[in-house]
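Summary for the steering committee. One of the milestones for this cycle was to obtain a three-dimensional model of the protein with NBP bound, which we needed before selecting residues for the alanine scan. The sequence and ligand used are listed below.
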Amino acid sequence: MKKLADIGLIGLAVMGENLVLNMESKGFTVAVFNRTVDKVDAFINGRGKGKNFIGAHSLQELVASLERPRKVMMLVKAGQPVDNFIEQLIPLLEPGDIIIDGGNSHFPDTIRRTKYVESKGLLYIGTGVSGGEEGALKGPSMMPGGSPAAWPYVKDIFQSISAKVEDGTPCCDWVGEDGAGHFVKMVHNGIEYGDMQIINEAYHLMKDLLGMTDDEQHEVFKKWNEGKLNSYLIEITRDILAFKDEDGNPLVEKILDKAGQKGTGKWTVDAALDLGIPLTLIGESVFSRCLSAQKDLRVKASKEISGTKPNFKGDKQQFVDDLEQAIYASKIISYAQGYDLMMQAAKEYHWNLNYGGIALMWRGGCIIRSVFLGDIKKAFDQNPNLENLLLDPFFKQAVQSAQESWRRVCATALQNGIPVPAMTSALCYFDGFRSERLPANLLQAQRDYFGAHQYERIDRPRGEFFHTDWTGHGGSTASSTYQV
Ligand code: NBP
């Protein structure tokens, strides 16, 4: 009898093809299907030739070729196609079978789909998969969430194909109920936006303030990659800066300065606004892409508005050293904010997130992989109830010792008219975070003055609200209080 497949996959595009090749290379038999059915045969006779794949030409055939409980993974375009496949699969599956979505789905969709699929007697997993094409083939970071009862059935496959850290621990573990996996993947992408923006600001300063060539910057990134900034994004930046076009000049300088985005950064910021979390660095990173996209308007403005021109008079090497500290400190703030968002989401959606485990899942295989994540893992291992990364002894010390350099970089950038929104917003957050008293007392007075929104007093117990007739001709009726 022909062997049944361990898992089925729908969606033979970049991610699907590479992920099933990865599964097969680890000893699993995979049944494959694609909406455009020709791609199934093309794959079976192409990259999949001679390997343990079963090509299916319909969903019925796919389902019939699977071991029970059946596991069907979709790697298709996020959105409606996922709902369509779920609808088509439900009548073909039996209680206990598992539908898995490995695409970049928005977490509220995954919450909804988990409930819906479970109501049909099936189990559901929404898993983040990070690492792009190469990661899918050689070992991605995977962040699964959904129906907890499904995890034991897919654990072996997922952990076998995922990236591993030095000691062999897989960069994949159960994240939590319903949309938790896709939420964590979304925050990963938001952090990716932030890491990239911080690096871009350093490049901008070295180029336009210090007047360094791309080759000189390549050397700086090379050195940084050997230290505490060691990470995939620093590594690829090092290589991008050394990459020459056909004429021998750096290719990066010929690329139009207009950034694209697919929306996961925006989702992260939307979630932060919904949950009331100050995710300032990632927010600035998304807006920086938006500003870059206004290329024509910027070209026009550059001809009409004059301002400070960069004029650096200090010690260049000292400034490059300061930059390394500024990147490091900004990055710590970004991760502290990202973790703050996950902690708030865990409360809101009743997820029991393992924060150290998340750092470990991001430690290898994905775009934000770095040595730094090992320190985050240690921080949560030492104190699983850590309220904020900035309160961990290691990170507290790290930010404090980077502080002077970070301030010098931000001040110099502002004085020289070079925008560094991620680094400066991170510094402002840091100063706000460590302030016992912020000027929100005045803000509360203003709100009460014009809208009778009431305030609490520092000389009275918390929870008692007051309204003042500030002008002498206002009424004594207060507006209802509300939380933003
Ligand atoms: P795409 O996101 O380009 O999706 C291609 C697949 O979706 C093909 O199988 C295609 O079938 C199918 N599809 C489309 Br398009 N529209 C469909 C529809 N209306 N109904 C049914 N099927 C439809 O592929 P990808 O880049 O491999 O990404 C797959 C998922 O993984 C996405 O959610 C993506 O966001 C996520 N992801 C991608 C990366 C990456 O680096 N590319 C990284 C991490 C996660 P067809 O062949 O018939 O057109």
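Key point for the committee: Residues 166 and 364 are 9 Å apart (CA to CA).
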